[in-house]
Design goal:
Helix content of chain A: over 70%
Distance between the termini of chain B: 21 Å
CATH architecture of chain A: Orthogonal Bundle
Radius of gyration of chain B: 24 Å
Strand content of chain B: under 5%
CATH class of chain A: Mainly Alpha
Shape of chain A: globular
Number of strands of chain A: 0
CATH class of the domain at 93-282 in chain B: Mainly Alpha
Strand content of chain A: under 5%
Distance between the termini of chain A: 18 Å
Low-confidence stretches of chain A: 282-286
Number of helices of chain B: 13
Structural class of chain B: mainly alpha
Helix content of chain B: over 70%
CATH superfamily of the domain at 93-282 in chain B: MetI-like
Number of strands of chain B: 0
Mean pLDDT of chain A: 85
Chains: A mainly alpha (286), B mainly alpha (313), C alpha+beta (535)
Number of domains of chain A: 1
CATH architecture of the domain at 93-282 in chain B: Orthogonal Bundle
Number of helices of chain A: 12
CATH topology of chain A: MetI-like fold
Order of helices and strands of chain B: HHHHHHHHHHHHH
Largest sheet of chain B: none
Mean pLDDT of chain B: 85
Largest interface: A-B, 57 and 75 residues
CATH superfamily of chain A: MetI-like
Order of helices and strands of chain A: HHHHHHHHHHHH
Oligomer: heterotrimer
Structural class of chain A: mainly alpha
CATH topology of the domain at 93-282 in chain B: MetI-like fold
Chain lengths: 286, 313, 535
């Protein structure tokens, strides 16, 4: 029951047999590598303008076409992946850590601690986010770390609520009671017995949070936080693409496609992970 | 149950107080005041405006006055919309946004939970893949993309539905509700599927299955309740978020709702409006989270906690 | 629990079935996309264009403008005389002018209205429009309490005399501004003190105006509807059964509503890609005309290296304005060689600026930055908007290519941007100015040492003296020569980089008749028709 070293190895073994998940993993790895190596792979410079060229549809020279400045869209999507994947992963990880910890503790301890912790969540839900971001910006200036902070600050709340609900329904199950009667410490029970059983919804919600975060980044850019032009991110490319989607549909299509495939891969991987990590299905594995 | 509800309502008082206090100072700390415009405003005019709205008093005084006002149910005049009170503006916008939210939520639940059910019934087969790919698409097309797309397609190209408005021409509610609901439907589909699959692997479900219950029956009777736990936990804040998040849809479809105020008030530094909206919105958050928690208990009586008889039913 | 659900369902059903208020507009109503929800309709309180467009229907000043020529034409005043020294204006009010409740519009109404605007407690942001009047400024600043000392008199109900501090060649144009509109004293006083802002007098049913239309409906964030005023003196020129002003904030939504037949007129904000579409598909509906407005970048001359005029000129000369208007804005804008746009009265801004990368590089080298070496990194501040960003991205690249210097783009939300600009917390900031009336002074004052709108920190006593001198000059040609000299002086120092003169881009349905394009984007509703045969 306790996910020791061996269990992780088992999980990895099970994951490797999950074909769609492995395909997704490969796709994400290739994408990540391409993003990292963007300066070497990109056919053009991401900010190289050709005003005379302007927006042109996809062609042999420009696979995804060019934008109104004549910049190569393929290059910009590739560069955009760097920011977007980074923001997506880091901010989601922040939200995941805080949310799971908060939700688990509140849900397991219950009573007054739970009440106080969840009311704090209510308070954070209630504060006007725009003002929070503006103040953050004014006090600390624009910085990528702030972006993670701002996004993490809102995204962990729902995660905490979901985990808490899950933990509350788990804490009276036999295996937890058994662990308690064996005299295991609370942290051990929490992290060895309860948390692993919440992976299902947590993984699902996490994979949903990543695209959300990537799109939220473009809204924060609107407020002045985050990516500044001429740099690109998927969120920004999509929101600019909407502006001229009738005249130049490719400016919306390709960034949206990039986000969509990434999300699809993440979710497939998430499903595979869920199956692989689930202690209950563990025994089912042939 | 009544004690639980009463307790939570009591807890709401300090929650709201903290939110009001933080927001009061937050909004005043933000750079740019309500009377800053593109053109310079002379110091004399500015002083007259600040005196009119009581901004010349010391901050603590303004704060106490504001609290006293809120207790009386008076949110003050809007700084931006000179001849309107905040209460009046909220009263004008809320029914519209609430209706939009309700339609959107209905669509989201219907489409989302439905798709989740279908997916969970045939996991890793084509209905599952189809439903989940549709859900992914829903998430990748945020309302600022989906709204204009739908408006162009159904409003301009096909000419079936009006491109804007709310309750003015027949059918003008369909596109906004669909746009707002789509993103949430996608979330719900994923969460429902995940929650159901989680339940299906539980012992008591396997027992039921072993006893020869049909798959659909297993799903609906045994797994659905527990499987909906994460869905409902998500729905609480989501329902409230639907109201605040309707900003984009209201802008794209020109709907006179509250969401537009919620965002514009912050941009306008309309202090009283920001405060009024925050108090109103926070109250909704508290209420919806309470409703969600009640629903959670109803879905899974173990959550009540006191009994502690362990897992089976 | 069951009860709770039942109650929830009931509330839900009630809401869904409930009427959401409002009905569709009957055919023949002119529907105008009007940007934002008006802050109020009180002409002495509001500051924005969306409000002005509605006030233009609800109120009428002493004079109006001909929408074709922008020359002053009679309105409430049917005739006026100006004294030889240009200091005294005598208006003869038409006796048939009526308020929408039937009361006569009298000279006392104007005295009351001017006094109201100038009352300090009202906080009227446009009170300064009346400052040319004798003692108006002193009264507004609270230096004198007796309004009788202010140069506005009503010797009889149909005569209004206004005395000016100094000749103001464009004074008649100011009287058409909403701040100079009359308001109905009994109505104002029925809803509160005369100098109290935000009372209920501007609500439908309460508002009494003297314009061609009266207020019928005001649904917040939905629409404002006005219908003809039966007491209006020139009711024969009113052909529209009603006008609806829709507060549509999103430019793309506005355009879709126009294409979907839900709007008849869209004023501005059209995406350049859409301009191309209309040029191709509906050229009759697209109206592009020059505007009396300038888009420019402002230097913070207090900060090095922008304290050096050579650096400022170098940056200005490295911008290819042709390319910006032809490739980026693409909406009929004209490259600006100076701050002030040309006007029909003969003002020609000095050709102070040309695109010359060679010379720009030389200037920059002279200032100590050969090939951009050692040039400190700096920020370009702009408020968040698609077009501002596109322009900034293009200019950033031009500076990099031609001068080898690196600009960082910083966008901020509107109020933060305003605060940063006012506090001088910027290196280079985007700015724009729209003239209220046709006169170069509108723009040149932006660079004066006394203007609150001059954020550059640059000032020159010689420049201020020239403006001052022009105020005393009655002859237009000589006055314009002085202003031109002032502008040449300012452009030598280049505290701002003029980029382009705006254009007015409108979508006007082919069914609309009598809608005229002009420099000021001024569109009165008299004589406007909606052709129903073309449906």
């Amino acid at each position: 029951m306790s996910p020791g070293r061996g269990q992780w190895r088992d999980a990895w073994r099970r994951l490797r047999r999950h074909r769609p998940a492995m395909a997704a993993l490969v796709y994400l790895a290739v994408l990540g590598a391409a993003a990292l190596l963007a300066p070497h792979l990109a056919p053009y410079a991401y900010d190289a303008q050709d005003l005379a060229l302007g927006a042109t549809p996809p062609s042999a020279a420009h696979w995804f076409g060019t934008d109104v400045f004549g910049r190569d869209l393929f290059t910009r999507v590739l560069y955009g992946a760097r920011v977007s994947l980074l923001v997506g992963l880091v901010a989601t990880a922040v939200a995941l850590c805080i949310g799971v910890l908060w939700g688990t503790v509140a849900g397991y301890l219950g009573g007054r601690v739970d009440a106080v912790m969840m009311r704090i969540v209510d308070i954070l839900y209630g504060l006007p986010f725009i003002l929070f971001v503006i103040l953050l910006l004014v006090v600390f200036g624009r910085h990528l770390v702030l972006l993670f902070l701002a996004i993490g600050a809102v995204e962990w709340l729902t995660m905490a609520r979901i985990v808490r609900a899950q933990v509350m329904s788990l804490r009276h199950q036999e295996f937890v009671l058994a662990a308690r009667s064996m005299g295991f410490s609370t942290p051990r029970i929490l992290f060895r017995h309860i948390v692993p059983n919440t992976w299902g919804p947590v993984i699902v919600y996490t994979t949903l949070t990543i695209p959300n975060v990537i799109l939220l980044e473009s809204f924060l850019s609107f407020l002045g936080l985050g990516v500044q032009p001429p740099a690109a991110s998927w969120g920004l490319l999509i929101s600019h693409g909407v502006e001229s989607m009738e005249a130049y549909p490719w400016l919306l299509l390709f960034p949206a496609l990039a986000l969509f495939t990434t999300l699809l891969a993440l979710n497939t991987l998430g499903d595979g992970l869920r199956d692989a990590l689930d202690p209950k299905t563990a025994g089912d594995a042939p | 149950m009544l004690r639980f509800i009463a307790g939570r309502l009591l807890q709401a008082i300090p929650v709201l107080w903290v939110i009001v206090t933080l927001t009061f100072f937050l909004v005043r700390l933000a750079p740019g005041g309500p009377f800053d415009t593109e053109r310079a405003v002379s110091p004399e005019v500015r002083a007259a405006l600040e005196a009119h709205y009581g901004l010349d008093a010391p901050l603590w005084r303004q704060y106490l006055d504001y609290l006293a006002g809120v207790l009386r149910g008076d949110f003050g005049p809007s700084f931006k919309y000179a001849n309107r009170s905040v209460t009046e503006l909220i009263a004008a916008g809320f029914p519209v946004t609430a209706e939009l939210g309700l339609w959107a939520l209905s669509i989201a639940v219907l489409l989302g939970v439905g798709a989740g059910l279908i997916a969970a019934l045939r996991p890793r087969r084509w209905p599952d893949h189809l439903a989940m790919s549709a859900a992914m698409l829903g998430i990748c097309l945020p309302s600022f993309v989906l709204g204009p797309l739908l408006a162009l397609l159904f409003g301009i190209v096909l000419g079936w539905l009006p491109v804007s408005g709310w309750g003015l021409t027949p059918g003008d509610k369909i596109l906004p509700a669909l746009t707002l609901g789509a993103g949430y439907a996608a979330y719900l589909a994923r969460l429902t599927r995940g929650g159901l699959l989680e339940m299906l692997s539980q012992d008591f479900v396997r027992t039921a299955r072993a006893k020869g219950a049909g798959e659909l029956r297993v799903l609906l009777v045994h797994a659905l309740r527990g499987g909906l736990v994460p869905v409902v936990a998500f729905l609480g804040p989501a329902a409230a978020g639907l109201l605040a998040g309707s900003f984009v849809v209201e802008t794209v479809f020109q709907i006179p709702g509250l969401g537009r105020f919620f965002v514009q008030a912050a941009f306008n530094r309309d202090y009283t409006m920001v405060m009024g909206m925050t108090v109103f919105f926070s109250t909704l958050i508290v209420l919806f989270n309470l409703l969600a928690d009640i629903a959670l208990v109803w879905l899974d009586p173990r959550l009540r906690g006191a009994a502690g008889q362990g897992g089976g039913r | 629990m069951r009860h709770l659900i039942a109650a929830g369902l009931l509330i839900g059903l009630g809401l869904l079935g409930g009427c959401s208020g409002g009905q569709d507009l009957p055919a023949g109503v002119l529907r105008i996309g009007n940007g934002t929800e008006p802050q109020d309709l009180d002409p002495h309180v509001t500051t924005g264009l969306p409000e002005y467009r509605i006030q233009l229907a609800l109120f009428e000043g002493l004079v109006a403008k001909d929408p074709r020529t922008l020359e002053p034409v009679p309105a409430v005043a049917r005739h006026w005389t100006v004294s030889d020294d240009g200091l005294r204006y005598t208006f003869e009010l038409r006796p048939e002018a009526r308020w929408s409740n039937g009361d006569a519009v009298t000279a006392d109404d104007f005295v009351f209205s001017f006094r109201r605007l100038l009352t300090p407690a009202l906080g009227g942001e446009y009170a300064y429009m009346l400052y040319p009047i004798v003692n108006a400024r002193a009264y507004h600043l609270g230096q004198i309490d007796d309004f009788a000392a202010v140069g506005v008199r009503a010797p009889d109900p149909h005569t209004l005399v206004i005395e000016l501090e100094h000749p103001v060649p464009y004074f008649l144009q100011l009287l058409d501004h909403h701040s100079a509109y009359p308001v109905h004293r009994p109505t104002i006083e029925a809803f509160g003190a005369q100098a109290r802002r935000g009372t209920a007098w501007t609500r439908p049913g309460n508002l009494v105006g003297n314009g061609p239309f009266v207020l019928r409906e005001w649904s917040v964030n939905r629409r404002i509807v006005v219908e003809p005023n039966p007491h209006y003196w020139n009711a024969g020129a009113v052909h529209l059964p009603a006008i609806a002003f829709l507060p549509v904030e999103d430019a793309n939504t506005q355009e879709r509503m126009f294409r979907g037949g839900q709007l008849d007129i869209v004023l501005g904000g059209l995406n350049p890609d859409k301009i191309e579409y209309y040029r191709r598909e509906r050229p009759q509906a697209l109206r592009v005309s020059p505007a009396y407005a300038t888009y420019y970048y402002e230097f913070n001359t207090r900060r090095p290296p922008f304290d050096d005029p050579r650096v400022r000129r170098a940056l200005a000369m490295a911008i290819d304005r042709e390319a910006i208007v032809e490739r980026v804005t693409r909406g009929g804008q004209r490259p600006a060689a100076a701050l002030t746009p040309p006007d029909p009265y003969g003002y020609r801004p000095p050709e102070a600026l040309r695109f010359d990368p060679e010379a720009a590089r030389a200037l920059l080298a002279e200032a100590g930055y050969p090939d951009g070496r050692g040039f400190p990194p700096f920020e370009v501040l702009y408020n968040t908007a698609e077009m501002h960003q596109r322009i900034a991205v293009a200019i950033q690249q031009m500076w990099k290519r031609h001068l080898n210097i690196e600009a960082r783009l910083t966008n901020m939300e509107w109020k933060v941007y305003l605060a940063a600009r006012n506090d001088g917390e910027f290196d280079v900031a985007r700015a724009g100015w729209v003239g209220d009336f046709l006169d170069p002074i509108n723009f040149l004052e932006l660079l004066s040492g006394y203007s609150g709108n001059n954020h550059s920190g640059w000032s020159d006593p010689r420049f201020d003296a020239l403006l001052e001198q022009s105020n005393r000059e009655r002859d237009r040609a000589r006055r314009y020569a002085l202003l031109q000299e002032a502008e040449r002086l300012a452009m030598e120092a280049m505290p701002v980089i003029p980029i382009y003169y705006y254009s007015n881009v409108q979508l006007v349905s082919e069914r609309v008749q009598g809608w005229h394009d002009n420099l000021l984007d001024y569109h009165p509703y008299l004589g406007v028709r909606l052709d129903r045969a073309a449906d």
